[in-house]
Every structure is written in structure tokens, then in C-alpha cells.
Amino acid sequence: MASVSRLGTAALRSSLSFSSISARSASFNAARCYSSAKSQSLKERFAEKLPEELEKVKKLRKEHGSKVIGEVTLDQVYGGARGIKSLVWEGSVLDSEEGIRFRGKTIPECQQVLPKAPGGEEPLPEGLFWLLLTGEVPTEQQVRNLSSEWAARSDVPKFIEELIDRCPSDLHPMAQFSLAVTALEHESVFAKAYAKGINKKEYWQYTFEDSMDLIAKLPTIASKIYRNVFKDGKVAPVQKDKDYGFNLANQLGYGENKDFVDLMRLYLVIHSDHEGGNVSAHTTHLVGSALSSPMLSLAAGLNGLAGPLHGLANQEVLNWLFKMKKTIGNDLSDQAITDYLWSTLNAGQVVPGYGHAVLRKTDPRYVSQREFAQRKLPDDPMFKLVSQVYKIAPKVLTEHGKTKNPYPNVDAHSGVLLQYYGLTEASYYTVLFGVSRALGVLPQLIIDRAFGAPIERPKSFSTAAYAKLVGAKL
Q: Which of 310, 363, 413, 448 is catalytic?
């Protein structure tokens, strides 16, 4: 089967017009039965909604463009731009008390309304991607079609496989992941089209095609890294009649466990998007604003996600839990947990997985994982340990007084679930996070290009200049 990228390149050689890429897409979809007469494709639906959405933004800026929406303090400037209102991110908004909402819908609401796989309990990532891009809940048929389209686009170029095979096994999985995604730039239809010259109004079309290709290939790339580093190097082929979460679980080697497959679906949904100010989301948006391809933009975001203050946190949580388990043994009493928490804090360390830059309550993503564990593994010793920490830690952290949010975030739970099902290699967990995060940041990249978002270029000052601005003498 020819890959989408090869078909895209052929189309670009013949024509770079809006009509030609639409025709190419329509032909490609029809040939593989992606859509039916009764069901619009994702690209068709986004294109149909776009004029109305552009008009909304145009009207908003025309009528309210000069209004002040906030102020910036010197503390915010030196504190990592925390809380400064300066980014547009359509997919999700994070409220300090309510948690994340995807296009206005909470995680429980998404679990309820987004389509599920036959026999599955958790929402399909395909449905969330559709929601993030269009603001609409897709039908089951639309989600099935999207599953089929991603499966059909999933072929990974041979040179990417060889590149991963040549990586030393001790090169961190996230470095290998970023390397492979960067190398996919070779397949970018956006980069090829831009080099030949296209109208700005067509940018989103090529960004969409690249994003779809990229998302489709990520499970195979991520699984090859996992199987190379930790297993036998053999990766199962994508099953073209299955959904995205199943294929990721199956290619990792856990497809026979239905509960793990459902966990992957949930994991991909809840880790996908957390508004635009976090490092991986903002970096993808920033690099994309320079009109770098989705491949280069996502790779930049992945490099940010790899940091210990971002995506690596779930690995640190698990290491901390194992150390606790080794110290307290089977004593899960309130006193034993309390003493260990204080020993961590008194050593000048943080309690990993607790606290959040924005949230001031238990992270709903944590809650969804906890509820999954309560249904599927209520007697697991590590889950019992996590539950006890959840019971005790907020009290200890409140008494400690140096944590604005004493409640757990998503990282406090995910590693325990993966461990239970046998995926014990904690250094790999951030790669899974990266696959999920692509589902959240790439819809916004498509929207950015559709809305004609400019290159991001905030103003910076030296410390001396800031001192002068506030009337201080250094």
C-alpha cells in the first residue's frame, strides 16, 4: 500500500492548489472507504465550520481589540510568565477549581458522550481529536472513519525504522522519539508545498495532512522504540480495522489484555491537552508560528515534554513510591505514611505528583485514573499505597504550608496503572505521554494556520530596563 506521504508528494508535483489537495484527499478517502454519504470526514467538517469561526474572531477583535484583559506584574515576569494572559488555545481551558475542560466538556462528560469501541468502557482518542479540532462531539461513524483513516496512514518509512534501529539502546526513549519525529520532516507535504509557493489560506490544508500522517505513525514509532530497548525488537503490524488505542496497546505487546487496551484509550484522552501554556503545548505552538512543519513543531514540544519538571514527573513519582514501599514495607498505616511524607519534606524535597501550577484541587485526570483502578485493580498493593498517600498527603502539605495546591495531579497515578499491567519500564512512560500530547497540540496547530496566526514574538527587557520601568534603583 502506498503511504499517504508518497501520494501527497505526487500530488504536490502536479499541483499545489486548494482544489488539487482537496481532490487528492477525496480520492484517497474514497479508495479506502473512509467516509460514507451520510458522514462528513473530519477535514470536510472543519472546512465547513472555518468561515464562521474566522468571522467570530474578526468580530471579536474589531469590537473589543483595544480592551485590557489583564496586567503583568514584575513577579510574573521573573516567575516564568505564570498566569499572564497572552495565548489563544481553543481546545481546552484549565480552571483552578474545576480542572480541565475540553471544548467546554469536563473529563467525566467526555467519558460519557464521546464514542467508545465495541465492548470498551473508555472514550476513543479519535473522538477527542475531532472534538478538539471542531468543537463538536462526533458520531460513532465519524469516529470509526477516523480510526480507519489513521490506520491507513500508519505506514512508517523504512528509513525511520532503520534510524530507530541504529540508536544505541541506552539512548533515552524520549530522545529516540524526538529524533524519529524530526526525521519525518522528510515526508512533510507542508514543507514541500511551502518551498514551491502556496497561498496563506491553504496553509491549514497541508498542516492538516501532515498532522494526520504524523498522528497515524506515532504508535508504530513509539512501539518500535519500546520493543527495541526493552523487548525483542519485533513490532506487530497495525490492524487496519481497529482503533488507535487498541493498535498502540497491541504494538507495545499488550493487546490481548482488554483492560490495558481500555487504559490506553483513557490515558491518551486525559494526557492529550492541558491548555496552551504548558511547555510542550506552548513550544509546539511557538515553533509552528515560524511556519515550521508539524513534524518539527511537535518534535520541539516533545523535547520540552522530556524535562523532569514536565512529562518526566510520572517517572519520578513511581521512583518515590518504590522508595517509600522499600522503607515502610507493608505498613500502610496513617502514621507510617505521615512520617515518610515529613521525611521527604524535611530533606528539602518535594512530594512528587502533588501540586500544580494552576489547579487548586485534585486533578480530574487523577480522579479518572483512580476510578479506573477502583474498578479494575482495587486490591493491588501499589494502588493501596497511592490511595493512602492521597488520604494523608493533602493534610501534611497543608500543615507544611509551602504548597499552594496540596492535591495530586495526573502524574501521581499513571505509573502505578502501567506497572500493574506489566509495562514496568518507567523511563518509557514519557513517550506514551508524547503520543497523547500530539493529539492535543496538533489540532491547535491546524487552527493556528487556518486563522492566520502570526509568528509569536513577545517583548523582553533586561533587569536594568525592568528596574527603570518600575522606578527602582539597582
A: 310
